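Prompt: May I have another protein with tokenized structure?
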Amino acid sequence: MTDAINTKKIAVGMSGGTDSSAASALLVDQGAEVIGLTAHMWKEGSRCCSLEDVERARKVAWHLDIKHFVLNAQEAFTNDVVNPFVEEYLRGRTPSPCVICNKMVKFGFLLNRAVQFECDLIATGHYAQIEEKDEIFRLMKAKDLKKDQSYFLHRLNQRQLSHIIFPLGGMIKADEVLPYIKERGIPARKSGESQDLCFVLDGDAGSFVENYASSTAGHGRIVDACGKTLGAHKGIYRYTVGQRKGLGVASTAPLYVTKIDTERNEVVLGLRAEAMASECLLEDVSWIAEHPPDTSKNYSVRVRYQHKEAPASLELKDVNTVLVKFKEPQFAVSPGQAGVIYDGDEVIGGGWIRGNG
């Protein structure tokens, strides 16, 4: 797919940050015809998609002497990412908006625009790799496992993968990408790592939901597994399974959120052992190869981006619903988060955690 790059016209999703700027420069240096596309997705104050980022990307494009286009993606971002994010929290679930953004905006909205610009491929600064084998495009982990972002890309389909390249996928950020940026003199933004809640500037998802939603369920009880009142909460959307800090409950032993009961508008607490799960159900599963894998094999499953993959077996309930059975119980398996299935370094697919099996 990446052969003869110098004959390709490639659109690069540019944020003005280090990674997308490095990807753009690498492709220019390889002789490709590169254009920069920056999606203005959210209002000022965002950490990845505001007008401030548009200006940074424009400066990088000028430095690289490539054409740069700014696209208004606010409606798509609001409808496909922000609104579902708020709705999930109100349902007592913990969403993964970056997964949806990659599927619907960065490799949906932007890919469609790239095609309109008659580009052969679209590139980004993501740390992941794509390999074509047996006429199937396979999503692989990045060489730099500390920066690997394959978890967030698991819902990409074959059409999308066939039009994508990740120039940084085979590079180590600290040892190769950052020195290259410095040597090239690229005026990229130097900031913290891009994270899931880029549009929630202060990281306070609960306050964002409260301010954004037209209505919320309001205050309710914090209880133990037997229903005993331990305290009061200010909205279930301020909690997630596995949470320990900020509970506002005094206890001689550490307590964790084990369940969010939307019907009762209650947050249930328990000991760490009560926040462990030996299995979970994944729904709306997306398979990279567009069909389920061989379930006689063992795989590994990551239930959150910052969690380690856990050995597990798979039981198909139907083509898009899978029961994951962990070899050892896992902590904080949260409804709404993505459960991503790996076979070694290859992403097989993933779905949304509905709850314990």
